[in-house]
């Protein structure tokens, strides 16, 4: 037994040695044969020839001898791969088509899976993430769920609760790091036990319990690994100080790489104790002591042995106890105070994208998976068509004794080779594809978060497994086909005519119909979305975004608590002095940026019923704003420098305001106010309606307040209209801000046109994504039809030859061959259109100005599919029609 | 060469023959072919293409071992030798063969 093992091992490990042995052994045998032949009187030359003839194929003997030692499996596989590679380089067209198809399939899968993995599967890099739960509170009113708590509530929960081994709290806010050219960073205000509860090992140290105490305000900070690297990767930074929101903090630790807090889309930035909240935000210290100020997220780690239900009940009792003990009867009002504790799994962190994109992502995963399956079906079809061309060769190999499993392995090796190349190419465009999906939330910054991370080992393993599975799928199909090869018939040349006729529709035909139907449906969807996109682009905005630069400014809170307007005033003067600058103004919000302010108003002389509330959208805008962005003032006047503090309080309303709230009475001179005791504001102008929040809805009632009377405060947009190209003004304008105060942040200067364009990003993404998949599906369907026809042509070469010899015209042959493909295409087309008809109403909410049954989209999809289908039929049909009858017959 | 009728080997008998040939002592591949040819009076000709795979197969099963040795003219040749397990295997196969041959003969005689 041991001996046998040793021989095998030796054979495997010292393959070369064994090879040499075998060579030498056979050489000896040959020499002896030659000697014998010479001894029998043959000439040396003849003796050699006779001996060699008797010897047969040395290669084969060697192969079979090796087989005895079990070396063959490994070696033959390698041989197969090399053989496969050789065959592929001999057919670069075929190889590149297959690789492209597989690359599309696997690239799309990789991209979507990497998002699914990040958002839906992967746990946070903390210890035992499955024990973590987020504490939320359901109100008795079913519409409210509260996920934030006050600091005193948190502290009580932490000290009283039984089921949690640890309870942490955190709040996220943005802040400014540094003094000169400060950078915007995320600040996490966390309880002192934050890192301990999560089980995250901080280099240096985490926070001490004392550092959390309200009023103590320990000025210490832990840095995110990414931020630490941006600051120069200096380990000596521990113990040094940094400037955050103008306050000096001592760095005490660096968080490990890959950990960036509990929200996926937010970079870690800086962690500081909760006690620093009022200090860094220049707020009242009361925030931490106030039980009615809910601002903290609370996450707990359930003790082993507690079920989530038991933990919930126990925690609920604690929360109730705290509520009863601390809330005066007068404060116990709905909706938020009557609450039941709910525990949500927190091991994967929280994510806006997961909420918004999760269901769509799952659907997308299914779609791309189907796409991969159809691409496998296609490649299998292509391999089949090609294998059938080589059927004779395969039959010869079988006759010569090649084992059928050996043949299967050869096909499998080829499949593996192709799918690996395909997957590698697919990886190249998996990353851009993922970016495309992420543009769904264009304003969400994912820089420095795992969502921006390069594809890692997990994803590569996924891709590898997928491509291996595809290789098996499409490698196996031709093998199954090869089992049907009748060696004798094939060699006699009679099999060729038998193959094509008799059988039923066959799996391949059904697959092709399915592919065509899928292509039609996806193309209809793409057509609807792109027509909708065209309509969106054509919408009249009501303002002219061209040639306008937008500088979003963020003033440091400490310096500009009350005098922000002064800064804006000086800056505007400086910007006006720049060459190529036409006009300058300011606004708190720019149109179509995704947000708008809302405030309650009262109209003079109008009685509201009890409890009724008039809420309207509003914006604060500088002098000349309306003129600058091209909103006509249809009555009255726009704002100018005289509408300043101390002057008569004024306001400009839009037409919708005048129409729906003033019932078309002359608005000029009417007065409104925010509430009792607030000053009356006189309407001095009516602006033409323009799009503010929604691109598609008609503009709601809106009012503009003069910024000189209602300051922008810390945040404002500077609007600069340029004489020519707006983008070229950005550097000079940004420089002016920096000259004036380097501590002011210009957060992403852009042009108004491109900012408006960004609001189209979700529509554009949907149209692009579905369009890409539509084209892919079309390609696949075309290749599928091509495969079927090419296969049929191959099978019927002899028949075609006979027909042509008997006088069939080229056109007849062309039609005969194309008929089958045409039929499949037609059935697919009808199925696809019916399917699309039945399901496009589901996307009504994604469409603007286009009905889900839009005939142009349907017609365009049909034309595309028919064109592609005809082309796919024509190519092999032409080959059939141009075949030389004599050659076709003799070939057999 | 005369077109003397050559007999195909029955499946499985090559192993038996090779083991038997080695019963007399170590031999190399060429020796074995020659001996079979002589002993069978030229009826059986071993295809080299079967012999070497068979030798290696038997070796892998542990029934024979091989080592390099000197042949005539001091040329290196690989010699095969029966192992103890091989001896047992030879006996077993011999017994099977005898039963089979006896049965076959009985059928052919009686029918």
Q: Can you give me a brief rundown of this structure?
A:
By secondary structure, chain A is α+β, with helices and mostly antiparallel strands. Helices cover 51% and strands 15% of the residues of chain A. In chain A, the strands form three sheets. In chain A, strands 1, 2, 3, 4, 5, 6, 7, 8, 9, 10 and 11 form an eleven-stranded mixed beta sheet that branches. In chain A, strands 14-15-20-17-19-18 form a six-stranded mixed barrel.
The whole-angstrom Rg of chain A is 37 Å
- Alpha-carbon distance between the termini of chain B? 36 Å
Greatest chain-chain interface? A-B, 29 and 24 residues
Helix content of chain B: 55-70%
Number of helices of chain A: 28
What general outline of chain A do the C-alpha atoms trace?
Answer: globular
Count of all domains of chain B = 1
CATH class of chain B: Mainly Alpha
Oligomer: heterodimer
Q: Catalogue the unreliable spans of chain A.
A: 493-505
The global form of chain B is globular
Comma- or semicolon-separated keywords:
heterodimer, A: 892 residues, alpha+beta, B: 111 residues, Arc Repressor Mutant, subunit A, three-stranded antiparallel sheet, 57% helix
Layout of strands and helices, then pairs:
The complex is a heterodimer of chains A (892) and B (111).
Chain A: H1 2-13, H2 15-39, H3 44-55, H4 58-69, H5 72-90, H6 92-121, E1 132-139, E2 145-146, H7 151-160, E3 164-177, E4 183-190, H8 194-198, E5 203-204, E6 220-223, H9 225-230, E7 241-244, E8 247-254, E9 270-273, H10 277-280, E10 297-302, H11 308-326, E11 339-345, H12 352-389, H13 391-399, H14 404-438, H15 457-482, H16 487-492, H17 495-500, H18 506-537, E12 548-554, H19 564-576, E13 581-587, E14 597-603, E15 614-621, H20 625-628, E16 633-636, E17 650-654, H21 655-661, E18 671-673, E19 681-687, E20 702-706, E21 715-722, H22 730-740, E22 745-746, E23 750-751, H23 752-758, H24 761-795, H25 797-805, H26 810-839, H27 855-881, H28 885-891
Parallel strand pairs in A: 4-9, 6-8, 15-20, 17-19
Antiparallel strand pairs in A: 1-2, 1-10, 1-11, 3-4, 3-10, 5-8, 6-9, 7-8, 12-21, 12-22, 12-23, 13-21, 14-15, 14-18, 16-19, 17-20, 18-19
Helix pairs in contact in A: 1-2, 2-3, 2-4, 5-14, 6-12, 6-14, 6-15, 7-11, 12-15, 12-18, 12-24, 14-15, 18-24, 18-26, 18-27, 19-22, 24-26, 24-27, 25-28, 26-27
Chain B: H1 13-23, E1 27-28, H2 29-39, H3 48-61, E2 64-70, E3 76-82, H4 84-110
Antiparallel strand pairs in B: 1-3, 2-3
């Amino acid at each position: 037994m041991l001996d046998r093992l040793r021989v095998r091992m030796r054979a495997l490990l010292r393959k070369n040695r064994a090879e040499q042995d075998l060579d030498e052994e056979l050489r000896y045998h040959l020499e002896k044969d030659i000697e014998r032949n010479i001894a029998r009187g043959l000439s040396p030359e003849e003796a050699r020839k006779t001996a060699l003839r008797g010897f047969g194929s040395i290669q084969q003997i060697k192969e079979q001898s090796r087989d005895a030692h079990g070396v063959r499996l490994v070696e033959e596989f390698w041989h197969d791969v090399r053989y496969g590679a050789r065959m592929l380089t001999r057919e670069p067209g075929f190889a590149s088509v297959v690789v492209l198809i597989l690359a599309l399939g696997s690239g799309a899968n990789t991209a979507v899976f990497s998002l699914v993995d990040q958002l839906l599967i992967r746990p946070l890099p903390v210890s035992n993430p499955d024990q973590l739960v987020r504490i939320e509170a359901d109100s008795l009113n079913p519409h409210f769920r509260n996920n934030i708590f006050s600091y005193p509530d948190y502290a009580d929960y932490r000290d009283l609760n039984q089921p949690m081994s640890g309870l942490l709290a955190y709040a996220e806010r943005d802040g400014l790091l540094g003094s000169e050219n400060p950078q915007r960073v995320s600040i996490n205000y966390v309880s002192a036990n934050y890192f301990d509860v999560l089980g995250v090992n901080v280099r240096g140290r985490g926070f001490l319990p004392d550092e959390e105490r309200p009023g103590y305000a320990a000025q210490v900070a832990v840095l995110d690994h990414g931020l630490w690297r941006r600051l120069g990767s200096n380990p000596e930074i521990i113990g040094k100080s940094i400037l955050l929101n103008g306050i000096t903090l001592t760095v005490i630790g660096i968080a490990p790489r890959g950990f960036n807090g509990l929200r996926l889309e937010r970079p870690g930035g800086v962690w500081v104790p909760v006690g620093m909240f009022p200090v860094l935000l220049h707020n009242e210290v009361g925030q931490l002591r106030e039980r009615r100020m809910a601002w903290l997220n609370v996450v707990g780690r359930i003790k082993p042995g507690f079920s989530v239900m038991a933990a919930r009940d126990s925690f609920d009792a604690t929360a109730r106890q705290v509520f009863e003990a601390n809330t005066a009867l007068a404060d116990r009002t709905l909706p938020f105070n009557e609450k039941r504790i709910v525990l949500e799994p927190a091991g994967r962190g929280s994510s806006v994208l997961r909420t918004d994109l999760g269901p769509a992502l799952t659907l997308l995963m299914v779609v791309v998976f189907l796409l991969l399956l159809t691409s496998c079906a296609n490649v299998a079809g292509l391999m089949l068509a090609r294998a059938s061309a080589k059927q004779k060769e395969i039959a010869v190999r079988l006759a010569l004794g090649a084992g059928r499993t050996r043949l299967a392995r050869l096909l499998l090796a080829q499949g593996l080779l192709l799918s690996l190349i395909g997957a590698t190419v697919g990886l190249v465009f998996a990353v851009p594809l993922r970016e495309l999906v992420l543009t769904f939330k264009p304003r969400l910054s994912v820089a420095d978060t795992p969502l921006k991370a390069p594809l890692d080992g997990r994803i590569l393993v996924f891709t590898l497994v997928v491509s291996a599975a595809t290789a098996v799928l499409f490698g196996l199909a031709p093998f199954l086909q090869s089992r049907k090869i009748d060696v004798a018939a094939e060699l006699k040349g009679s099999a060729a005519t038998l193959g094509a006729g008799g059988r039923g529709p066959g799996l391949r035909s059904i697959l092709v119909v399915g592919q065509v139907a899928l292509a039609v449906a996806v193309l209809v969807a793409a057509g609807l979305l792109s027509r909708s996109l065209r309509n969106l682009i054509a919408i009249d905005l009501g303002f002219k975004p061209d040639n306008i630069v937008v500088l979003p400014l963020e003033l440091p809170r400490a310096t500009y608590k009350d005098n922000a307007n002064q800064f804006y005033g000086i800056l505007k003067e400086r910007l006006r002095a720049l060459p190529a600058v036409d006009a300058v103004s300011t606004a708190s919000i720019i149109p179509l940026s995704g947000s708008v302010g809302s405030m309650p108003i009262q109209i003079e002389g109008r009685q509201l019923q009890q409890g009724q509330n008039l809420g309207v959208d509003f914006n604060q805008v500088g002098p000349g704003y309306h003129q600058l962005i091209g909103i006509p003032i249809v009555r009255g006047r726009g704002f100018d420098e005289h509408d300043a503090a101390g002057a008569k309080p004024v306001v400009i309303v839009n037409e919708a305001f005048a129409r729906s709230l003033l019932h078309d009475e002359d608005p000029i001179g009417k007065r409104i106010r925010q509430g009792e005791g607030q000053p009356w504001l006189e309407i001095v102008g009516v602006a033409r309606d323009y799009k503010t929040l929604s691109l598609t809805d008609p503009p709601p009632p809106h009012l503009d307040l003069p910024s000189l009377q209602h300051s922008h405060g810390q945040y404002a947009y500077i609007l600069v209209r340029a004489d020519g190209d707006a983008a070229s003004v950005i550097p000079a304008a940004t420089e002016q801000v920096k000259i004036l105060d380097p501590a002011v942040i210009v957060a992403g200067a852009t042009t108004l046109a491109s900012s408006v364009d960004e609001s189209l990003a979700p529509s554009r993404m949907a149209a692009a994504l579905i369009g890409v998949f539509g084209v892919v599906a079309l390609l696949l369907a075309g290749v599928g039809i091509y495969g079927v026809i090419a296969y049929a042509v191959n099978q019927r070469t002899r028949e075609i030859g006979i027909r042509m010899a008997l006088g069939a015209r080229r056109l007849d042959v062309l039609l005969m061959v194309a008929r089958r493909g045409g039929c499949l295409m037609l059935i697919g087309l009808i199925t696809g259109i019916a399917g699309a008809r039945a399901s496009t109403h589901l996307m009504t909410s994604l469409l603007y100005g286009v009905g889900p049954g839009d005939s142009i989209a349907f017609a365009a999809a049909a034309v595309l599919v028919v064109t592609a289908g005809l082309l796919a039929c024509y190519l092999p049909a032409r080959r059939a029609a141009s075949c030389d009858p004599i050659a076709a017959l003799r070939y057999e | 060469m005369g077109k003397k009728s050559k007999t195909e080997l029955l499946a499985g008998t090559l192993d038996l023959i090779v083991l038997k040939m080695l019963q007399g002592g170590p031999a190399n591949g060429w020796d074995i072919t020659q001996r079979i040819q002589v002993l069978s009076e030229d009826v059986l000709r071993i295809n080299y293409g079967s012999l070497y795979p068979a030798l290696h197969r038997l070796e892998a099963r542990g029934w024979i071992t091989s080592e390099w040795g000197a042949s005539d003219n001091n040329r290196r040749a690989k010699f095969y030798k029966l192992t103890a397990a091989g001896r047992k295997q030879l006996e077993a196969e011999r017994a099977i063969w005898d039963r089979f041959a006896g049965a076959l003969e009985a059928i052919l005689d009686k029918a």
